[in-house]
Amino acid sequence: MSKGERAGRVERADAAQNRRKILAAAADLLASRGVEALSMDEVARVAGVGVGTVYRRFHDRAGLVYAVVDDREREFQESFLQGPPPLGPGGPGTPDAPPAERIRAFLHALADRTEAQSELLEMAEMDSADARFRDGWYALYQSHLATLIGRIRPGADAPYLADALLAPLAANLFRYQRHVRGMPLERIKAGLDALLDGIREPG
Question: What is the pLDDT of residues 89-134, one digit of tens each?
Fold first, then answer.
């Protein structure tokens, strides 16, 4: 192994260690002091790293928050990409659920997922005007829904309709409905069902 290769491995190990320290510090701050304490400077201080290291790893506060909630997000993605029907496609020998049933299951599961971490998701999405759409999660959601919508209504503008179904699950609107207007989660899910019915039964 060359000197340069050894240095590269040490650098990668240091970077991985810094990432773990930063995420642990962010999680501790969230647990002990709430979302308002989650600034890049404060996370760097608690983690014992330079603030430039935090910015290089996560770019902005939105990127840091998305990384903190990544474990739950990975579980959610696995459930709709590989899990059992109706949310997922099922395995070999398991019949796939009809596309409308899969969309309904996805929207309900996404509502549950948003409910679980709505305060964090709102912080991330509000960090910049396009934060929600820059994250890879949104692109995956939109593509998944557009594919299923295309099976229900061939020729429809499936990408637009996918955006329309995802719009009510923006964290700021979701939290406003839940915590200001007092809507129960089941009412939000019923509203999503009504939007889906409009796609299933055009005109």
Answer: 987 878 889 999 999 999 999 999 999 888 888 887 877 788 788 7
**What is the length of the chain?**
203
- Cβ atoms of 30 and 68 within 8 Å: the answer is yes
Query: Which pTM was predicted?
Result: 0.74
SS3 92: coil
CATH class for the region spanning 1-58? mainly alpha
Pick the CATH number of 69-200 from 1.10.357, 2.60.40, 3.30.70, 3.90.1150: 1.10.357
C-alpha 26/C-alpha 160 separation (Å) is 35
